[in-house]
Amino acid sequence: MNIRDIVTEYLNTHGFDGLYYSAECACKKDDLMPCSGDVFANDCQPGYLCPCDPVECGEHDWHIGATRVEPAVAADPKEI
């Protein structure tokens, strides 16, 4: 077992979606530490998958952050 395995197990056990470092970078569990752990040792934190605005975010459509964002639930047309 290596550090990547240990971190993945922790993320899974506690319901996290990946890691993030401030607003600068993030990685999902399925592509953990693509930075080779350069930042990881001191600064990455576990976090939750969050949607983002494609206009503001450019090349990606997700973020990892400290707060879990629940998906919006569409209203039942019968209740409107």
Write a structural description.
The chain has 80 residues and is an alpha+beta fold. The protein is 24% helix and 24% strand. The chain has three helices and four strands; from the N terminus they run αββαβαβ. The protein has a four-stranded antiparallel β-sheet with strand order 2-1-3-4, with no helix packed on it. The longest helix has 11 residues, at 3-13. The protein is globular and about 40 Å long.
Q: List low-pLDDT spans.
A: none
Give the end-to-end Cα distance, rounded to a whole number of Å. Answer: 53 Å
Number of distinct helices: 3
Biggest sheet, spatial arrangement of strands: 2-1-3-4
The average pLDDT is 80
**Percent of residues in helices:** 10-25%
State the major sheet.
Answer: 4 strands, antiparallel
By DSSP, the count of extended strands is 4
Task: Compute the number of structural domains.
Answer: 1
Radius of gyration: 15 Å
What class do helices, strands and sheet pairing give?
alpha+beta
In one word, what is the shape? globular
Q: Beta-strand level of the residues, as a percent range?
A: 15-25%
Order of helices and strands: HEEHEHE
List the keywords.
80 residues, alpha+beta, 4 strands, 24% helix, globular
Task: Characterize this entry briefly.
The chain has helices at 3-13, 40-43, 54-57; strands at residues 18-21, 25-28, 45-51, 62-65.
